[in-house]
Amino acid sequence: MSVQMRVLSVLLRRLYKPRMATAERARKAINAVKADPAPPARVTARHRMHRRSLEGFDCYTVVPRSAPAKTVIYLHGGSYINEITKEHWSFISALADAGMRVEVPIYGLAPRHTYREAFPFLTAVYRDLLQTYEAEAVFLAGDSAGGGLALALAQDLAASALPRPGRLILLSPWLDITMSHPDIPVVERRDPWLSSVGLIEAGRAWAAGDDPRGPRLSPVHGDLTGLPPVELFVGTHDVLYPDALLLRERAPDGVQVNLHVVRGAFHVYVLTPVPEGRRAIATIAQILRKS
Fold first, then answer.
1. Beta-ladder partners of 226
2. For residue 53, what is the DSSP state?
3. Residues 201-228: tens digit of each pLDDT
4. Cβ pair 131, 231 in contact under 8 A
5. 84-117: buried (b, 16+ CB within 10 Å) or exposed (e) per residue?
6. What domains appear along the chain, each with residue ranges and CATH number?
């Protein structure tokens, strides 16, 4: 583990973990005013961008300087209650630098919106891309809640008889909003950032009274047959690590789940300014170029 990772772990534990450590604090965060999702100026200055509306929600397109042969649909994390951040936009910019066109759907957040509105919107984004790209040239990616949403969307596409995307790139995905894996309490003591109590509250808001173990909400329990290859990046000090292992265990024959595990890494380390994150981004760019 790098020095930068150790220092950030200390800062996260002191400054961020308390924010969702109790149900009361989580409910306050859920009901807080959402941030502006617009990309920062440094990203708009670096790439060609445009915004369009589908199913009542905005979707940004980030276009690289070279003509893109492939595209990534990137779903941001934030526990389904927080808007896209500058860290997400930095990663999106890195994907564009790697030659990818990146679609960034700004899906609605809880408590005003729920998962029920997300799937028609995301499916519309995918269908729209199929007018320009072959399905194998379209990749689904996401971090944390967005990673869980990306896996659930891939399952939904298969159930709708739509062609499967070329690959899934999941960064510390939230795969089970019930946080019921028996190994989670052990890992949670090492996690400097996330608290299962707060995540459970956020998951309830996103589910809006529906069964939280349903495949659109907790896709690790859904049908995993027919999925494209999965590249899953996760750290051992991430409370979501046990469910990442469960996804690989549950993957049926014919579904490839490649786990990229970093010892001592915290949640979504790929999006942070640590050497481990930079190496992961380089690996992801290489995988996408070769896919």
1. none
2. E
3. 999 999 999 999 999 999 999 999 999 9
4. no
5. bbebbbbbbbbbbebbbbbbbbbbbbbeebbbee
6. 3-290 (3.40.50.1820)
